[in-house]
């Protein structure tokens, strides 16, 4: 069985049901790559779209690319938004996934506007997603939401400029970069400010 097939088997639960993280750990311990190239998917995409937060964390901790764009599924964040996997969306954002990368010019917010809950839109915009950004077809996320729906209302509410504190948070996180976000906890900052920067 090829690695991608084995990882997909683990992520789908296989015969292990809730033990897919254990199966994944065994594969990684025996030298499997966390981001094998496959034209249709990757283990981190499978974990994101199936809602397996723990498996996704394991793969990312072992070197999987958080912003790996697959031609069919987009980035893991895009796949999680398309699958309406709110827990995976939140975890990916907290770990530093880009809200601007999706599938081609379609952003995760475009995917959320088509399919996901208002909570996903709130998460994406809190992490800096642009409600006015247009995709290849010239559509903004609010153009994709059903008219007069809670989704359209949520997008319209997020249309205005961000607060100064939000802009500062995004700027600090951007300056630190994904790999240095953990350093916020070690800075001489009040706990409340550290928590704010880390979205706690």
TrEMBL record:
Q: By what name is this protein known?
A: Ankyrin repeat and SOCS box protein 11
InterPro entries cross-referenced by the UniProt entry:
Ankyrin-SOCS_box_domain, Ankyrin_rpt, Ankyrin_rpt-contain_sf, SOCS_box, SOCS_box-like_dom_sf
ANK repeat positions: 39-71, 104-136
> Which CDD domains would you find in this protein's record?
SOCS_ASB_like
Metabolic or biological pathway, per its Swiss-Prot or TrEMBL entry? Protein modification; protein ubiquitination
Cellular component terms (Gene Ontology): endoplasmic reticulum
Q: What SMART domains would the database entry show?
A: ANK (SM00248), SOCS_box (SM00969)
Family in the record: Belongs to the ankyrin SOCS box (ASB) family.
Domain of life, per the record? Eukaryota
Main location group: endoplasmic reticulum
An example of a Pfam family matching this protein is Ank_2
Protein species of origin: Synaphobranchus kaupii (Kaup's arrowtooth eel)
Q: Which UniProt keywords apply?
A: ANK repeat, Endoplasmic reticulum, Repeat, Ubl conjugation pathway
Location of the SOCS box domain? 151-200
A Gene Ontology biological process noted in the UniProt record is: positive regulation of protein catabolic process
Cellular localization per UniProt: Endoplasmic reticulum
